[in-house]
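Dear Dr. K.,

Following up on our conversation at the group meeting, I've run the structure prediction for Short-chain dehydrogenase from Deinococcus piscis. I'm pasting the input sequence below exactly as I used it, so you can double-check it against your construct before we proceed with anything downstream. Let me know if the numbering doesn't match what you have in your notebook.
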Amino acid sequence: MNKTSIGTGKSAFVTGASKGIGYAVAQALAGAGYQVTITSRNEQEVTGAAEQIGSSVRGVVCDVRDPKALQQAVDEHVSAFGGLDVLFVNAGVGHFSNVKDMSVEDWDTVLDTNLSGAFYTVKAALPALTQSANNGGGYIFLLSSLAGKNPFAGGAAYNASKFGMNGLSEVLMLDLREDDIKVTQFMPGSVATYFNGHTPSEADAWKIQPEDIAQLTVDLLEMPRRTLPSRVEVRPSRPAKK
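The predicted structure tokens came back this morning:
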């Protein structure tokens, strides 16, 4: 199948997509023919990102911690594009410190964004995705992390959110398979993104690139409906030596 045509007449909704993995996924989906809505909390960034990707992309300000704002954003997407076929749950944050030093506010921010935000996003999109499934579509991707099974010191909130994301993803897969909605969780290791204030550079060349996750997304959308890679672990081929 020609990748430039798999999304013809279809649409996708990608959270946390003003840069990094979300941006790369939105760019790849737009290139594959999808009409795309991207979200971010920063109006200037999300508007600029949408303009850079192309005319088939809408940029919307939305905080995934706000279920009402998410529902409005999804409803506007459906109104603009006539439906919703692909959901990519990507928005996430990280605060890292020893448990004794972590504030309640930082804990809440990470869990509310990474885990509750994922649940709110899926809930808002399910009616439209169910309708898409009735017409041969309906796919949810959730970005988790290898931190969802490999705890590390200082990662209490982030690890908890990603362990929870893995559980949520697997339950969604089981709950929604009878509705013909496919669910895949990505669990990448080190990715060259802007996460947690990092600025990608040549020193990150060994890491997974956002475009690699985007390519996986498009590749999985091409797979026959009968086949579901429900969990995809992704690692750098040759990690940097410590």
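Two things stood out to me. The chain has one domain: 11-234. Residues 104-133 form the longest helix (30 residues).

Best regards,
J.T.
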